[in-house]
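This section describes the prediction task in plain terms. A model, or a person checking by hand, is given the sequence of a single protein chain and must write out its three-dimensional structure as a string of C-alpha cells. No templates, partner chains or ligands are provided. The sample shown here is typical of the held-out split.
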Amino acid sequence: MEIVVTGRHVNVSDRLREYVAEKLDKVTQLEPRMQRVEVLVSHETNPGSPRPRSASRSPVARRVR
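The expected answer:
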C-alpha cells in the first residue's frame, strides 16, 4: 500500500511520516484491496475534526464517530 503524506503550510518530519505509516498499516487488515492512502497535514488556528480521504477502487474507508 502506498502512503503519501503531504503538509499544507507545515513541514512534515520523518518522524511524523513513520508514525502515520505505523498507524495506517492496520488499514490493510480492514480493507486488503486498499492501494493508496493520502494524508494531508495542515495547521489550523481553529482546529475542527479530521477529514479522512481514501483513493481506492474498493469501497471507501470512512471515519465512524
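For orientation: DSSP finds two helices and two strands in the chain.
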